């Protein structure tokens, strides 16, 4: 159960990604079967590398197993109906916790062909939780496609990173004023690269 | 800080809109005139937005609107655009972000900053190389080289420290805290200072919407944690009162 939830989350992630590509197909009247092909391969191939046996969620995705909000995404994409927005809420799954026994590591899904090009998704599992899901391959049609890649989970620092750090390029924090800036890490970074 | 094999890099810092804004160019020709001219235009845009949309300048277009000397219909295209974006923000946040209710009258300051930086960013797109803009703690960046910019997220309990970091290829990182600029963020729905979130960082494609979402998360307080699951196509981090950290990464 836990494992299937985990897998469903992974499927939802991929389906969410694929649904973005599928969305225009419903308006452009694609060749019959194209959307179906995309969708079903998305559902079955999502976490092919997981090897965790239990069906790798093969059915759960396409049947909209309702194990989570990812169900709507999965069914949307496999039917080609293009419910792109419905799939996105499945994202909560990617940071959700699950006590499954899935081995920690990185799993790469099958390459899914879409009319815009190949899409391939990779998930990272750590301590039974999907800590990251990202497209490792995606079409390069226009610059905005890269945003489908999504944004990485912030990496918690394992040790104190102070103003002497050379690992970072900028600091995001509550708005600094000019007074605060003088003593801030950002000012140290900026000064290092001035002129 | 740099090693010998790294791409050439240059940074500028200017105080504008009441905050230090730094622009970094990495790779390409950061010391050439193309980069310099684009950077100058970017700063000029920020100064222009400040002159027109600052509520602290009596002669700004916004101040005239606020005093009733100017109607929205007669306002500039930009001001009307900002007003529309503010209405969208109210809708998207169910009123947790409301430029009409957090201070006297209509004050879009919380949205104008992100909007202005996005505009300045458009002017910087012509620069060869990788570009990063840090506007008082909100970051907009892209990488043509494929090497990500690494953005540290400040520890709200010790601002000399970095709590986490996030690699950024193309997008924005915005952070809000309840004590930003020394003034509390007020919940426009209650009029009370927001509490429960020490800082909220949102990573997403748009600096404007990342900034609005980060502010909203602070306003929402304890409800922010669940709310982050609705932020499609973003990742981020909340530091909750008590120090617990909540992270998320939602697909598009």
From TrEMBL, chain A:
| Listed Gly residues bias regions | 48-62
The segments labelled Disordered in the record are 25-106
SMART domains for the chain: FMN_bind
Query: Boundaries of each FMN-binding domain copy?
Result: 114-192
Q: State where composition is biased (Low complexity).
A: 63-105
**Domain of life of the organism in this record?**
Bacteria
Protein name per its UniProtKB record: FMN-binding protein
Upper classification of the organism: Bacteria, Bacillati, Actinomycetota, Actinomycetes, Micrococcales
Automatic annotation (TrEMBL), chain B:
Q: Which cofactor does it need?
A: Mg(2+)
Could you tell me the EC number(s) of this protein?
Answer: 2.7.1.180
Signal sequence span is none
Instruction: Specify the protein name.
Output: FAD:protein FMN transferase
**Top-tier EC class:** transferase
By its UniProt entry, which Gene3D superfamilies does this protein fall under? ApbE-like domains
Q: Does the keyword Flavoprotein apply?
A: yes
The record's Pfam families line, in alphabetical order, gives: ApbE
- SUPFAM superfamilies per record: ApbE-like
> What keywords would UniProt list here?
FAD, Flavoprotein, Magnesium, Metal-binding, Transferase
GO molecular function annotations of the record: transferase activity
Stored PANTHER family: FAD:PROTEIN FMN TRANSFERASE, THIAMINE BIOSYNTHESIS LIPOPROTEIN APBE
Which InterPro entries does the record cross-reference, listed alphabetically?
ApbE (IPR024932), ApbE-like_sf (IPR003374)
Q: Which reaction does it catalyse?
A: L-threonyl-[protein] + FAD = FMN-L-threonyl-[protein] + AMP + H(+)
């Amino acid at each position: 159960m836990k494992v299937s939830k985990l897998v469903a989350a992974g499927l939802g992630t991929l389906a969410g990604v694929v649904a973005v590509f599928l969305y225009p197909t419903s308006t452009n009247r694609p060749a019959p079967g194209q959307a179906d092909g995309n969708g079903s391969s998305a559902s079955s191939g999502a976490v092919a590398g997981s090897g965790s046996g239990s069906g790798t969620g093969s059915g759960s995705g396409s049947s909209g197993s309702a194990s989570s909000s990812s169900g709507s995404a999965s069914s949307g994409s496999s039917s080609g109906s293009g419910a792109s927005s419905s799939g996105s809420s499945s994202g909560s799954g990617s940071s959700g916790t699950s006590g499954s026994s899935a081995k920690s590591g990185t799993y790469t899904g099958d390459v899914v062909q879409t009319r815009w090009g190949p899409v391939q998704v990779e998930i990272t599992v750590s301590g039974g939780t999907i800590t990251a899901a990202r497209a490792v391959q995606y079409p390069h049609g226009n610059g905005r496609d890269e945003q489908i890649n999504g944004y990485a989970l912030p990496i918690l620092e394992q040790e104190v990173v102070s103003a002497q750090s050379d690992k970072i390029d900028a600091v995001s924090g509550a708005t600094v004023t000019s007074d605060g800036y003088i003593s801030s890490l950002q000012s140290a970074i900026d000064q290092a690269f001035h002129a | 800080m740099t090693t010998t094999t790294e791409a050439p890099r240059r940074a500028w810092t200017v105080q504008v809109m009441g905050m230090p804004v730094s622009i970094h160019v990495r790779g390409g020709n950061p010391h050439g005139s193309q980069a310099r001219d684009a950077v100058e235009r970017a700063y000029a845009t920020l100064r222009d937005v400040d002159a027109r949309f600052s509520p602290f300048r009596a002669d700004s277009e916004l101040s005239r609107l606020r005093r009733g000397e100017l109607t929205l219909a007669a306002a500039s295209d930009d001001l009307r655009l900002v007003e529309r974006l503010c209405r969208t923000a109210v809708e998207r946040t169910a009123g947790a972000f409301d430029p009409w209710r957090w201070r006297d009258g209509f004050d879009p300051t919380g949205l104008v900053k992100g909007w202005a930086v996005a505009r300045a960013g458009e002017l910087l797109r012509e620069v060869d190389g990788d570009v990063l803009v840090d506007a008082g703690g909100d970051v907009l960046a892209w990488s043509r080289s494929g090497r990500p910019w690494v953005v540290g997220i400040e520890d709200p309990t010790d601002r000399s420290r970095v709590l986490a970091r996030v690699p950024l290829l193309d997008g924005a990182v915005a952070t809000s805290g309840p004590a930003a600029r020394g003034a509390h963020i007020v919940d426009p729905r209650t009029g009370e200072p927001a509490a429960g979130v020490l800082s909220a960082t949102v990573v997403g494609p748009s600096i404007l919407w990342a900034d609005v979402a980060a502010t909203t998360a602070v306003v929402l307080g304890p409800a922010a944690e669940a709310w982050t699951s609705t932020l499609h196509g973003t990742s981020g981090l909340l530091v909750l009162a008590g120090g617990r950290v909540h992270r998320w990464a939602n697909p598009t």
